[in-house]
Amino acid sequence: AQSVTQPDIHITVSEGASLELRCNYSYGATPYLFWYVQSPGQGLQLLLKYFSGDTLVQGIKGFEAEFKRSQSSFNLRKPSVHWSDAAEYFCAVLEYGNKLVFGAGTILRVKS
Amino acid sequence: DGGITQSPKYLFRKEGQNVTLSCEQNLNHDAMYWYRQDPGQGLRLIYYSQIVNDFQKGDIAEGYSVSREKKESFPLTVTSAQKNPTAFYLCASSEGQGGSPLHFGNGTRLTVT
Lengths: 112, 113
What we know:
The structure holds 2 protein chains of 2 kinds. Chain A is mostly beta strands. Chain A has no helices and 12 strands. Chain A starts with a strand and ends with a strand. The N and C termini of chain B lie far apart (36 Å). The radius of gyration of chain B is 13 Å and the shape is globular. By secondary structure, chain B is mostly beta strands.
């Protein structure tokens, strides 16, 4: 079965600093990968997705992610973090049957 | 605006009672999903349905039941057999094919005491 690992449970960055959230997946074929963001008590919002082609994908809110097959990774990045980016971030891989398998999530705290 | 509506946002029940969580979508999506979220565990799939009148168990289906009588609706019943029902429940929908992303509702927080 597919799995997703997000090694960092919590990350704290200063406002204006750069951000990288790590995600590793296990999947035999070329994966369909996603990053979602969740504000407290809310549903999940899609930030970006990777299916094929360019390994660097752009998403909403200034986020980008890079697919590295050799490292089985799909890390999320943002050059300059804003206080409103504080939330929980989930990496996910698509399974057969169009089902998503999620990582455990990374909680981002932004200090001013 | 198209979207997914989950109601109610907060739900309280006594142990031993069944409870049904509502999920309605007006996105004309074929597939619908129920996930359970617990702190530090991400989201785990309970049930999913790719077409009306058909549904499949996910990873943690025990103690739950669903129905899919209409394309727009996918209610989830948490039965008294579910050992740890207190959680945040998220409903989602997708076009169901070709890697289409899931769209999520705002969730229902269920507390059972």
